[in-house]
TetR family transcriptional regulator
Amino acid sequence: MARWAPGASDRLQRAAMELFAEHGYEATTVAGIAERAGVTERTFFRYFADKREVLFPGEEQLEAVFVDAIAGAPADASLTGLLIAALDAGGGALQDLRGREFARTRNAIIAANAQLQERELLKLAKLSRAVTAALVARGVADVPARLAGDLVVSVFGTAFARWIAPGETRDLVELQRDGLAVLSDLARADSG
Amino acid sequence: MARWAPGASDRLQRAAMELFAEHGYEATTVAGIAERAGVTERTFFRYFADKREVLFPGEEQLEAVFVDAIAGAPADASLTGLLIAALDAGGGALQDLRGREFARTRNAIIAANAQLQERELLKLAKLSRAVTAALVARGVADVPARLAGDLVVSVFGTAFARWIAPGETRDLVELQRDGLAVLSDLARADSG
């Protein structure tokens, strides 16, 4: 592998996704991933703790995008303004960084494995707590901050599922805005 | 153990909770739980698949309470009316069946073990999907049904955390109603 190639981390990820798709997640080994990517196993472990983590790249970075958008919003932003800022930034970063095709492939692999689904749930629960903490740091009270943390994850997750559905062309940020509008209608119906 | 005793399932559960509290979850064995409850290991496995499942009793039944409340609501119920029916029934059933002290003890055990937390997240994700399916069966469209399924779990989970907090005396149903009101205010602020 003397030819120029993109970063080892990206190559390992692409190799892993190919092998997961070809042979299934369980049958794929770290040795196989490293070989396909043209690096040593030692290099693999410099970037990922195990083969599962290849499917959860940039988790802390994505969480930071949501959190930083809340921390950096104007001082007079409403709670809803903070949530929109977080979702627009987070959804935008996700689709720019990985793209819809990567997300579709990854999702199919995760959907086929209970352990990966649990890992995904843990990731989303962590995101909810991070958003809640960021809101509390902006002076939002505990209960609305907790509900809003869950709401951000719910709107993100629902929009994500639509975004990767076959034939869907709208972008993730637009689908998140649509989800927020649906929730807003739901709550308004409550007061009527 | 010749004396009269409540059902073996209840006794096993009480014994398990005592041992988890005394020695920790990891150090407790099925053999130890069965001995404390005065039954054989075989009897244990008639009621629970493993020691983890002792901490997740009645999961399907609780899910059914939420689902049945939606299915059984008046034909003209609004979406919000369906969510209130589900939360009132589910929260009410949980607090009547187990009580706050059981919930506190159980929560402390789960909070100390990552594997148990993942199991708890899976339970809540299943509850969200069950509520969503029940709403779809009532004619609610996919996107609002999915967001509403998450919303029910979020309101339930947030109220549950408050309900088991030290010194809290309000009941779970009241705390869920309060959470719904907080969410409703949040969405109304959005439209202003």
Residues 58-191 of chain B form a domain with the Tetracycline Repressor; domain 2 fold (CATH 1.10.357.10). DSSP finds nine helices and no strands in chain B. Residues 114-137 of chain B form the longest helix (24 residues). The two ends of chain B are 66 Å apart (CA to CA).
